[in-house]
Amino acid sequence: QVQLVESGGGLVQSGGSLRLSCAASGSILDNYNIGWFRQAPGKVREGVSCIRSDGSTYYPDSMKDRFTISRDNAKKTVYLELINLKVEDTADYYCTRVDLGGGGCDQSREGSWGQGTQVTVSS
Known about the structure:
Elements: E1 3-7, E2 10-13, E3 18-25, E4 34-39, E5 46-51, E6 57-58, E7 67-72, E8 77-82, E9 91-101, E10 104-107, E11 117-122
Parallel strand pairs: 2-11
Antiparallel strand pairs: 1-3, 3-8, 4-5, 4-9, 5-6, 7-8, 9-10, 9-11
């Protein structure tokens, strides 16, 4: 069973950028689809981006222009690059195993939520 740990969050000014990491342990990462989600204070968790085991990606329409997901299987890590950050991007960001289909991406039955990494964007 793969365990995923998020890191890379922090405090950044509006317009800045960050690269979040999702590091795997306990298993190789190669065969898993991985997704990033976020949850802002007082809001429901929402999907940000997903990447399949073959490297193809999925983004909800609202996340397509400023976020880039990638993976390095040799390093057992999935990355999420955030650019041109806005105050409304402030949230806890989580990675998890996902299933893709039906035009969307959702946490898989085998997925779980970790501690997340906090991103705070100041104006």
